[in-house]
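Q: Convert this sequence to structure tokens.
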Amino acid sequence: MKKLLLILIISFATQQFSQAQYRKQITYGFFGGANYSKMTNLQSVFIPNNIYSGFETNEEATIGAMAGFFFNWKYEDQNVSLQPEIFYSTQATNFNYNDIRGLKYTIGFKYNYVNVGLFFKYYPVDRLYIGVGPYVALNVTSDAIEYSSNGEQVAAETGLYFEPDIVQQKFLKESLQGKNYFQTLFGVGYEFDNGIVVGFKYHLGLSDALETKENGFRFIENKNKTNAFS
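A:
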């Protein structure tokens, strides 16, 4: 299993003010960073169980980007706060296949999302927080699938026929569609005096992120969750 890449998010708070009558602080700002994400359970979409053997597959996580906006609402005499967030993220997974005939192909799921949620933060000590919250990821590029293979080379060597990559990609776009999904975010971070916040989050997918439409390729509908580190 690949070593997971942990990348910090840096948040820049643009303004802070307080309302003394309610003894609360509201901060807001922008944040940006990177994520490391993967969609799971893809093999069983394309290859029914016990149909044939002599192949290997793997789901390859990839690095993407994210950027967004937040509000943070905290009472001065309490150690909890609420932080609504909205952010844009690029999340991709490569499904890699190879078999004993020498055929190799990669199906790339290159999805982009608008994520909206509410992050609950608890401060065990001053400025250090841990948090959790529900989010929805709205897929804005639901047909962003890429297909590449060495089928042309294998066909020349063996005489077997494989559909051209562009045709296979068209079939995949027609048969599979990225979905909106729900996730829970867990995080930890530190808020500096100058308004900079450094944090790390784990995105746990809770619902299906890929829909298999009716098709003639025996592709199977199942639950494909997306998880990420950011």
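Residues 1-9, 13-21 have pLDDT under 50 and may be disordered.
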